[in-house]
Amino acid sequence: MKSLGTALAIIGTGAVAGLVAREVIIRRDRRQPAEVKPLVRQGKNPVIPLVAGWSITSEHVESVTSQLSRFTGPVGLLIHTQGGHFQPVMQLAQAVRRHGNVTAIVPYYALSGGTLIALAAKSVQLWPHAALGPVDPQIGCFSAGALEAILLAKSPENIDDYTLGLAHEGRKALTETKRLLRSLIGDNAAAMQRLVSGGIPHSYPISYEEAKGLGLPVQRVQPDAASRQATQALVADDRRYLET
Question: What is the residue range of 169's domain?
Fold first, then answer.
């Protein structure tokens, strides 16, 4: 996620069996918000795709929240992303939590901000090799935790203005991320420490086994052929978009 020109990344994953594409329409014009009609679980609940291979943006907020507002019952949110800017990730996490009946589906990875959005859901379904990740804010090239360590190790007069500014931005981002994460997973000290402390690399993949051991609301799901085919088409379409 990014705040004031700085970046914060987050991971999240989930999966749903019986997924088929009924209608997926994505406007490729970068000047217009993406219009994404939901995937539909065969014969049952709608599944909204949040496929942002590179970064979650305000366009994803517009498309996903407009779809969420159409449904009051159970809905799936298929998440495939490396994370995104601070503002859209926070907005999506709050929208998912307010809906109250969302299942996060992660086929491959939902990193950084993707993990935060996934944890805002009622439950998280992971495909066999899917991964979540740490949600510690990333400010420029550093984690917020590393920048905070500089503040603790050196007096302000010995820190250049740029680094000092980054460190203060990092401290604010870290405070807000901890606040939101605590509202999602409760007083789970082990999970909070693992996910947001900065003690592990930001790109570290958190497996189903580790997530389960941390007490996170994850389930392992084996997708069927239709689920894989529909998801692979979405991911490939997003990749082609990024390459244009």
Answer: 2-243
